[in-house]
Amino acid sequence: MKTSQAALWGIVAGAAGVAAMTLAEKAEQRLTRRPNSYMPAHTLERLLGLPHRPDAQRLGLNWAMHWGTGIVLGAVRGVMAARGLRGPVGSFLFMNLRLLNDQTLENATGAGSLPWTWPRDEQAIDLLHKGVYAFVAGAVADRLVAGPPRPPMPRPGWTVGQPA
After folding, report:
1. How many CB atoms lie within 10 A of CB 103?
2. What pLDDT, on the 0 to 100 scale, is given for residue 155?
């Protein structure tokens, strides 16, 4: 499969992942009474150099960043699937890419704070939601995108004191 085709299927997978993450967030918010986060809007506002506005006026920016980031990063997961980074390991690696992307943009713009400074419950909630996103996007990408024509060659192991 061509890289461009894998990326396009990955975009579909990313949209599915964002939809699942959004549903999980809304269910969690009903249970925990946690308010909506406007961090995506704050980040996009700063990236675009827009004037500061109250959160109540940021819903469009919030959804654009929330959905846009997940959909665009899905292209990477599609390419990962095409190149053999599939299954739970591929999805775990992809989850870290999503976390890295969010934290880099939020902290580079000054909109966010370093995650280890957050309360533990917020850390856990963020990891849970990004995991839902990554594993749903991964399952969809792995289903839509054919893997490599042959599995990657296993790397020979080694034992201490013996040649590889």
Report:
1. 15
2. 75
DSSP alpha helices (H): ranges in the chain? 3-32, 39-47, 59-82, 87-108, 120-144
| DSSP 8-class letter at 36 | P
Consecutive H or E run containing 114:
none
With beta carbons less than 8 A apart as the criterion, state whether 13 and 141 touch: yes
CA-based nearest residue to 123, from 133, 113, 115: 115
pTM above 0.85, yes or no: yes
pLDDT beneath 70: ranges in the chain: 161-164
Which amino acid is located at 110 in the chain?
G
Q: How many CA atoms lie within 13 A of 27 on its CB side?
A: 9
pLDDT of residue 34: 94
Provide the token pair at 118: 């957050």
Phi-psi region of 36 (alpha: psi -120 to 50; beta: other; left: phi over 0): beta
What's the pLDDT at 164?
Answer: 56
Q: What are phi and psi of 51, to 5 degrees?
A: -65, 150
pLDDT of residue 104: 96
Count CB atoms within 10 A of the CB of residue 10.
Answer: 30
* pLDDT score for 163: 62
Instruction: Say how far apart CA 104 and CA 74 lie, in whole Å.
Output: 17
